[in-house]
Design brief:
InterPro entries: Helicase_ATP-bd, Helicase_C-like, HIRAN, P-loop_NTPase, SNF2-like_sf, SNF2/RAD54-like_C, SNF2_N, SNF2_RAD54_helicase_TF. One of its GO terms (cellular component) is nucleus. Residues 657-695 form the RING-type domain. The protein is α/β, with parallel strands linked by helices. The chain has 5 domains: 20-30 and 242-285 and 326-538, Tandem AAA-ATPase domain (Rossmann fold, 3-Layer(aba) Sandwich); 47-166, Alpha-Beta Plaits (2-Layer Sandwich), CATH 3.30.70; 591-702, 2-Layer Sandwich (Herpes Virus-1), CATH 3.30.40.10; 721-900, Rossmann fold (3-Layer(aba) Sandwich), CATH 3.40.50; 904-941, no CATH class. It has 30 helices and 24 strands. A 7-stranded parallel sheet has the order 12-13-11-14-15-10-16, with helices on both faces. Helix 5 crosses helix 16 and helix 9 (368-381) packs across helix 26. The longest helix has 23 residues, at 204-226. It binds adenosine-5'-triphosphate (ATP). Residues 266, 268-269, 272, 333, 335-341, 373, 377, 380, 480, 851, 853, 855, 881-883 line the site of adenosine-5'-triphosphate. Adenosine-5'-triphosphate (ATP) binds next to helix 8 and helix 9.
Length: 951
């Protein structure tokens, strides 16, 4: 391979080195940057068809666009038209103009379109394919608007002119039908045929059609059920149903990168060789050349007499010129099947396939939390010298675009792409540091691989827009669970990035052909989705077996044990007192979530709740009166800083908002220390100007933002997370740590029973609880607040296997820490000090549930149960994956007779609900119903019945 060229002389660190570990890493912490960026952006709101309006396309003779009957066409404003400022163009799916809307129609629609109040789509009734001269063509305009009923009510009067006979829209509840809809029921004839039984003279074709229709209905129902299931495990089930059925029989790449060829340190497994061949085929797709050939990205080859043309079976678009087809797809193998190595072997296998108009460099974009997984996987599996790799991250990133283009692989994060992007309204801050050569945007990439591609699920986010603007010849999305629910729009965003299956990659067509009809459980759309997914998505799961019944990846068994922990006398008393005060308070049903969180924290360690919590609760119960809660006074800088620290901790602990009961999204804290999503608290304040928790008078001006992420050095110095080995002298001087709680003591006794050759992961949602465990046992730690460099170091340390102490000399291979929580010292030790290799990793559920390889461990402790059991499953998947050679033991630690035991019961019941949702026996719930159901769950934890109606 060609020798590495040098980058700018300004940084020796940035030299193009085959060893990526020398590349500049993060100098600024952006904890969980990418996901937060996504969450903080405006939500997407789907629209629906209000009315279909029959009209014409005029001026057809002046344009070259061809259309066929039934074809979907775009309707686009043309405000610069010199003859008519209301002009509206009609384009076919390839973007070629067919004509205009009549002036009278355009005059009515243009103002509504200009104000983005409606969107308009066309469906052709006839076409101009025959070549016969036409002045006009017939079409139907579907006029669409927001599905929100209040906004629809406002808009309908403005569209009366488009309703049949201009009689206006049907009054809700009347039997008129004004809007086209789709029905789930089979067609009348089909139902009769089915009822008559197989002996009836129904042709085989009809039977097959009927079965297909029923399957599609089932799929549609599953899709509809997804809208209310916020559970990635369930989404994965739908994904499995959508992706191709023949994937176990896929052909294997005959000459993959290998050990023998000196490229890999471990040979690819069979399913990876299959994936490699599938990936290469998807990078080099070819349009069909015969009428009998299967469609490629929905394009068929057809003939009309001697005239050959391509026909898009999704949009019914004919065109004579060869349509553009995209290169790339979605790699969605389930967690732990080795997608990383598969994608790296794709890079290696195609190194000689050098593009003519692009560089030969592959850009990998990953969330910060899994960035180091790529570098580690390269170290572990790729022979040195095979790939020239560069990590582009942090403020110190200074490789010039031209230099980056000469690497084989450049690894970066979503945040870095956003920062280098200069497009759009949000570009101003990026401009300050922008390079003259455009950074990542200055390279024409051979290939882009998006790891955890759902980070671009919301097309309105800056990240999503930036990523779609990167230039590349081939595009890949790697994800364990792409969300394909009808409401969530991430699949549309993924297609937009991938630029495959045009025009489904355009929001308008995705919405028309998939998102909207799917939300109405339209079987045709479900069938289209299935066809789409099986053609562009590779999905295998660990549970799959090959034709000989062998698992795809043989893994040792996993045993899960629920460990019941009794609280000690003191904890029990405090718990019972707080529980009964909370019980009394929940009559209001407003602060139930916050009280539940405090109870959950209390059973982990009493120090996790505020010192005067019980007294405050009692006081609050005695004065449920707004008058007792005066408006907030002006706060001093110290008080603001303290509140910000509280909010920061809540974000780290993935706490939920007490208004929407979802994870805090763009959170704010009030002077009374209660925190909410910005959107939720704004809505509450607009109605009642009181804190929903303690009814203190508040205004928007009282909302305090989270603190900015501290720079990396601060993390090193402030003791928040101390990664240096503990200095023994200092330890002697430090005051003793707080006593271990019952849960921690139980954890310690279990850890002591574990064989000395085994490593353990200790997961908790609450990083403050990890702090408490940290003062009791030696550990390494991984959480969302850690800078990237530290994360990589910790993972590397932990990956070192333990040696049997009987066989090894005492070695100080790595420091094992006990946290000096602001100067406090360590208490006990799990390991004989002779063996200084990390044995226990403390890991936050939020930061550690996705994308990490921790197969060095075989024991998993889940310290606090929650009803999002999917996150716990993802945590277990960190150890239950390729590379795991030992049996895995999972201990779910549950404090006896507390909220935790009830949470477990709810977890089981939820499982049932989710199954019902998937079998279609439950109807769709509205957002409010969902919220109420959640509130009922919360209240049930207190052993009460929740509200049944909107309060
Ligand atoms: N051919 C192979 N031989 C040996 N080990 C392998 C092989 N392929 C993958 N692995 C190991 O399997 C583990 C899982 O791989 P990887 O992280 O790529 O999974 P993944 O599918 O990306 O999972 P996730 O979706 O959780 O990120 C890693 O420890 C990796 O080193």
């Amino acid at each position: 391979m060609e020798e590495a060229p040098q980058v700018s002389s300004s940084s020796s660190k940035a030299s193009l080195d085959r060893d990526h570990s020398t590349a500049p890493l993060a100098t600024q912490i952006v904890a969980e940057e990418d996901l937060d960026a996504v969450n903080n952006e405006p939500a997407y709101e789907p629209d629906e068809i209000y009315v279909p309006f029959p009209t014409k396309i005029v001026g057809v003779r002046y344009y070259t666009g061809m259309v066929g009957a039934g074809e979907l066409v775009s309707v686009v404003r043309e405000p610069t038209n010199q003859y008519d400022r209301n002009a509206i163009r009609v384009l076919n799916a390839s973007g070629t103009q067919v004509g205009h809307l009549p002036r009278t129609v355009a005059a009515k629609l243009a103002p509504l379109m200009d104000q983005s109040r409606v969107s308009v789509e066309g469906v052709m009734k006839n076409g101009n394919l025959s070549g016969r001269f036409a002045y006009e063509l017939d079409m139907t305009l579907n006029i669409c608007g927001p599905s929100n009923p209040a906004r629809r009510k406002e808009l309908e009067p403005l569209l009366n002119w488009a309703t049949p006979g201009q009689r206006g829209f049907p009054i809700p509840g009347s039997n008129q039908t004004g809007v086209v809809g789709t029905s789930l029921s089979p067609k009348k004839g089909q139902r009769n045929a089915s009822a008559a039984g197989p002996s009836n003279a129904v042709s085989q074709l009809q039977q097959e059609q009927l079965i297909a229709a029923q399957k599609a209905i089932e799929l549609s129902r599953m899709m509809a059920g997804l809208a209310k299931v916020d559970d990635s495990a369930r989404r994965a089930t739908v994904l499995d149903a959508l992706c191709g059925e023949d994937i176990l029989e896929l052909p294997v790449h005959e000459d993959p990168p290998s050990k023998a060829k000196g490229q890999l340190k471990n040979d690819l497994l069979r399913h990876q060789c299959q994936a490699l061949r599938w990936c290469i085929a998807h990078e080099t797709p070819e349009l069909p050349k015969r009428e009998t050939a299967p469609p490629v990205q929905f394009w068929q080859f057809r003939k009309n007499g001697p005239q050959a043309y391509y026909f898009n079976i999704a949009t019914k678009t004919p065109q004579s010129a060869a349509p553009a087809i995209g290169r790339g797809a979605i790699m969605a193998d389930s967690m732990g099947l080795g997608k990383t190595l598969t994608m790296l072997s794709l890079v290696i296998a195609t190194l000689d396939d050098v593009p003519s108009a692009h560089s030969n460099a592959t850009l990998i974009i990953a969330p910060l939390s899994v960035l180091s997984n790529w570098t580690t996987q390269i170290d572990d599996h790729i022979t040195e010298g095979t790939l020239r790799t560069y990590v582009y991250h942090g403020d110190g990133r200074d490789a010039a675009a031209a230099a980056m283009a000469r690497y084989d692989v450049v690894i970066t994060t979503y945040e870095m792409v956003s920062r280098d992007w200069r497009g759009g309204k949000l570009a101003a801050p990026a401009k300050k540091k922008a390079k003259t050569d455009g950074g990542l945007f200055g390279v024409k990439w051979k290939r882009i691989i998006l790891d955890e591609g759902h980070n671009i699920r919301n097309p309105k986010t800056k990240t999503s827009q930036a990523i779609c603007e990167l230039e590349a010849e081939r595009r890949w999305v790697v994800t364990g669970t792409p969300i394909v629910s009808a409401k969530d729009i991430d699949l549309g965003s993924l297609l937009k990035f991938l630029k495959v299956c045009t025009p489904l990659d355009q929001h308008e067509y995705f919405n028309r052909l998939l998102a909207r009809p799917l939300s109405k459980a339209d079987p045709q759309a479900a069938a289209l989705l299935k066809a789409l997914m099986s053609s562009i998505c590779l999905r295998r799961t660990k549970e799959m077996r090959d034709k000989d019944g062998k698992p795809l990846v043989p893994l040792p068994p996993v045993e899960v044990t629920v460990v019941r922990v009794a609280l000690n006398e003191e904890e029990r008393k405090l718990y019972d007192d707080i529980f009964s005060e909370s019980y009394a308070s929940t009559i209001l049903f407003t602060n139930v979530l916050s009280m539940l969180t405090r109870l959950r924290q209390l059973v982990l360690h009493p120090s996790l709740i505020p010192p005067n919590y019980l007294e405050d609760l009692r006081k609050a119960n005695n004065q449920n009166d707004a008058a007792a809660h005066p408006p907030s006074r002006a706060l001093g800088p110290d008080e603001v800083a303290m509140l910000q620290a509280t909010l920061w901790q809540a974000i780290q602990d993935a706490e939920e908002c007490s208004v929407c009961f979802d994870m805090l999204n763009n959170p704010r804290i009030l002077p009374c220390s209660h925190y909410f999503c910005l959107e939720c608290i704004r809505e509450v304040i607009s109605r009642q100007q009181k804190c929903p928790m303690d009814r203190r008078v508040v205004s928007e001006g009282d909302l305090i933002e989270p603190p900015p992420p501290p720079p990396e050095e601060e993390f090193e110095e402030d003791g928040g997370v101390d990664y240096d080995a503990l200095d023994e002298d200092e330890a002697v001087e430090s005051p003793p740590p707080p006593p271990a709680s019952s849960k921690i003591q139980h954890l310690i006794s279990l850890l002591q029973l574990i064989p000395s050759t085994e490593k353990s992961l200790v997961f908790s949602q609450f990083t403050s609880f990890l702090d408490q465990i940290a003062v009791q046992i030696p550990f390494v730690r991984f959480d969302g607040s850690m800078p990237q460099k530290k994360r990589a170091e910790v993972l590397k340390q932990f990956a070192v296997p333990l040696k049997d102490p009987n066989e090894t000399e005492s070695e100080d291979e790595f420091p094992v820490q006990t946290r000096r929580a602001k100067g406090k010292a360590k208490a006990s030790s799990i390991r004989p000090s002779a063996l200084q290799v990390p044995v226990v990793m403390l890991i936050s559920l939020k930061a550690g549930a996705l994308g990490l390889n921790l197969t060095a461990a075989s024991r998993v402790f889940l310290m606090d149960p929650w009803w999002q059991s999917a996150i716990e499953l993802q945590a277990i998947d960190r150890v239950n994956r390729i590379g795991q050679t030992k049996d895995v033991y999972v201990y779910q630690m549950v404090a006896d007779d507390t909220v935790e035991t009830r949470v477990l019961a709810i977890q089981e019941r939820k499982q049932l609900l989710v199954e019902q949702a998937f079998s279609g026996t439950r109807r769709n719930e509205t957002h409010r119903q969902k919220k109420e159901a959640r509130l009922n769950d919360l209240v049930e934890v207190f052993g009460k019945r929740g509200p049944t109606k909107k309060r």
